[in-house]
Amino acid sequence: MLAILTSTSQNTGEFPFVKIILFIYFIPTIIALFRVYILRFKFLSVLMINLFFGWTVYGWWLAFAKAFSSRNTIYVKNKSGDIMYSDKYDRLDKLNNLRSSGAINEEEFELEKQKILNH
User: Fold this and answer.
1) What string of H, E and C letters represents the secondary structure of the chain?
2) Would the N or C end of the chain have less CB density within 10 A of its end CB?
């Protein structure tokens, strides 16, 4: 029994290999940690996907894609259906383009800008 324990404790060639495999396995989580340090929920969701489903190729790539996604998606409903806006800055840019083209006046621009900023 002692011979088995000593032979396994002297096997140092496998330990760096395990570290490398674990590092590769948790690359999406490491990226999410350094990339979106403000959004802890996103980091936790990448960690959970990576931890529980990372052993599958699909789960690892899903965690990797989620780690690199950086914009929040806001859905705004209007009469023509769902319009997807990336964030409030894109909406403000589109609103400014409407104002500069003359489609809306300054008063309408300020009203809509306040709605976007207060949302």
Assistant:
1) CHHHHHHHHCCCCHHHHHHHHHHHHCHHHHHHHHHCCCCHHHHHHHHHHHHHHCCCHHHHHHHHHHHHCCCCCEEEEECCEEEEECCHHHHHHHHHHHHHHCCCCHHHHHHHHHHHHHC
2) N
